[in-house]
Amino acid sequence: MGNAVADITETAPRSSQFNIGNIMHRYGTVAILVALLIVATSMSDVFLTERNLINVLRQSAGTSLMAVGMLFVILTRGIDLSVGSIAALGSIVCAILIQQYGAGLSIGAALAAGGACGLVSGVLIAFLKLPPFVTTLAMMTVARGLSLIVSAGQPIQMGDAGMLIVDFGSLSFAGIPYPVWLMAVVFVIAGIVLTFTRFGRLVKAIGSNIEAVRLSGIPVAFYTTSVYVISGVLAAAAGIVSTSRTGIGSANIGVGAELDAIAAVVIGGASLMGGRGGVFNTFIGVIVLGIIANMMNLARVPGYHQQVFMGCIIIGAMLLQYASNWFRR
Amino acid sequence: MENLVELSGIRKSFGGVRALQGVDFSLRPGEVHALLGENGAGKSTLMRVLGGEYVADAGTVTVSGEQQQFRGPMDALEKGIAIIHQEMALATDLTVAENIFLAKIPSLISWSDLNRRARELISSLGFAISPSATVGDLSVAHQQVVEIAKALSRNAAVMVFDEPTAVLSARDAERLLDIIATLRERGVGIIYISHRLDEVFRIADRITVMKDGSSVATVERMDVEIDDVIRMMVGRSLKALFGEDVERKAGDEVLRIENLSDGARIKGASLSIRAGEIVGLGGLVGAGRTELVRMIFGAERALSGKIFLRGREVKIRSPRHAVKAGIGLVPESRKEQGLVLDFPIRVNATMARLSPLVNALGFVRRSKEMSAVEKLATRLRLKAGSLNDPASSLSGGNQQKVVLAKWFHADGDLLIFDEPTRGVDVGAKTEIYSLIKSLAAEGRAVLVISSEHIELFGLCDRILVMREGQLTGSLEPADYTEEKLLRLAMVNSATAEAAAIH
Hints:
The complex is a heterodimer.
Chain A: H1 4-9, H2 20-43, H3 50-75, H4 83-126, H5 132-151, E1 156-157, H6 163-170, E2 172-173, E3 176-177, H7 178-196, H8 198-208, H9 210-214, H10 220-246, E4 248-249, H11 257-267, H12 279-298, H13 303-328
Antiparallel strand pairs in A: 1-4, 2-3
Chain B: E1 5-14, E2 17-27, E3 32-36, H1 43-50, E4 58-63, E5 66-68, H2 73-78, E6 81-84, H3 96-100, H4 111-124, H5 140-153, E7 158-162, H6 170-185, E8 189-193, H7 197-203, E9 206-211, E10 214-220, H8 226-234, H9 238-241, E11 253-261, E12 267-274, E13 278-283, H10 289-296, E14 304-309, E15 312-314, H11 319-324, E16 327-330, H12 334-338, H13 345-350, H14 366-379, H15 396-410, E17 414-418, H16 426-441, E18 445-449, H17 453-459, E19 462-467, E20 470-475, H18 482-490, H19 494-501
Parallel strand pairs in B: 3-8, 3-9, 6-7, 7-8, 13-18, 13-19, 16-17, 17-18
Antiparallel strand pairs in B: 1-2, 1-4, 4-5, 9-10, 11-12, 11-14, 14-15, 19-20
Helix pairs in contact in B: 14-15, 15-16
């Protein structure tokens, strides 16, 4: 009988346990974070203060919600470019409705609007097989346009009715701001869904080999659509979080935010080819981006320069991912 | 005669796994040397050493009397060693001529010259393929011809064919064997890896059998019979290949299709299968067998016709409906269609029926899942380190068992196997045959597509033959001969063949 030893050999050479690539792949993102923490601490005395760190987290809350949605989409081998615009739509819808209908209903309507955008993209992508990049690019302009129409291009004051939301943005519980709590809850739920549920398993499997999953009798179009709905809802939520800091709904928030979300997911080691990526690493990715922005603010790097740095960091993260794949061969 | 290639004492380990344990192998010019062995015996690893993809831990590679130190595939190509991979390494969007001369395409291209040289090379192989055709539009057989022409353009003195006929129809395989004979006459040394022993016995001059990383024996083809070789490979004879026959009785009709058509490839197909029956579906590649079963499974749309399951008409619009209705399909390509390769064996095995393993909130019950998969692994004699290892870590035969496990777990009434033993070693083949028989013995209906006639003859209770999208006849065991099957599969298709060649 062919023994187990021989059975392995004719498939691709298998990665052994002690392999630089595997280690880089698993801990690369964490390593980036640690390196950044060291650099940041040595650069500025302010960095490692409680107040500053909490500030970093608070500022990352919006991006993180979008990044979680983006992670689900990217796991299916898709991309969602519309999240920044949907955030604006969520912000506007919430701000307009809140004066008449109160916080609960207006938040619900904002999330529903985001979900509806995601549903449209998802149906076009999953059932009509349109490419995700182009479809969500179109949704990006549609959602932005809608928020400009609805708001007539003007910022919308939430007024007294919006106090609850402003409180959410400015107050803390147990020393941690509410947006950070929200971020934590979303990450934990997303982590549980991806690791322990049928939904999470199939979403990842679809990204890895959609045809094999389809031929197992799984309604792949349903799952593919639903990740875009999730992404839309979370993007709208990110818009509300963003509004909560100022109390003003605006059609101009979230411009370019989709790039931050994608960057966070990619820095977190997810593969744009689908099937690979995790919630914890995405969280680290978000924090890495947050710290970089924070560092540059502390060092008084001008805004335009910051963008160049940010781009370089993203390329660096991609190279790291590439290198870890290379070492795994 | 001086040896063209001499490999001696080749050792190669991956981590702790010793893939090659001191293998000797030689090839003379103008010789077809078959390399046989189960998957995992080390054939491909040995060829990768020869092709410069792997560097041996010990041992020497000698080509034309000179000892070589290949650092990469380019070094080996330089010395005239060409490996024709089963998964072809062609750029499908480029033309035939571009592919043939890809490595040495001049910076300023004279298309007329390039196309002329390409045409000459191809016609020297007895084919007429347009040099300006896009490779992706060609049939698999013609792509293989392009691959061979590519090797010839580099003056390859040694060509390694790794399971070349596995993806070809009977007739195209025939033509490939003719090409190989032509190459041999020109003095090319040919190493031929195949699981099809009848082919090997027709064209090989010498045969080397490998097992567990060593070579068992090198023999002259004249000196041995097929049964001897099988025994060398696995220690069992051809009769034992199909496993034990289990008592089974044909019951009620499970599937009936009437006049199924898709308006293109399938032109009104009707058939019926009863519980406990194993029905074969024979025919040439391209006859529409795969399309037909994919239609039954809902993976492709039927335009007209009816499908009845257990006497009741059903509408199957997607694989999901099919699985719910109790149909399972082991698809043609396990890597692309059968498995999520990067995912654990456990996840692949339960994918078609997760609901009993999931609680009301959608959480997978891991321990219940694990015990279900462990049972399957035992029943299917799956050889795996851990059931949490990715499916890609398994050998071909064991990967196929995981696909089977998926449908065992789904527990349907009708199981369709499309080329169930492609790229599977002899030992695993027997096990798969036994499993298919046991499924039928449990009262399920089984439909098997195979391009290996021996497989259909050894496994099936009757064989339906397809040609050009229609069922042309049925064979009972008394009529099981290659000739009768091919007559049903091929008569009247000469015109189609002519059209395909231009």
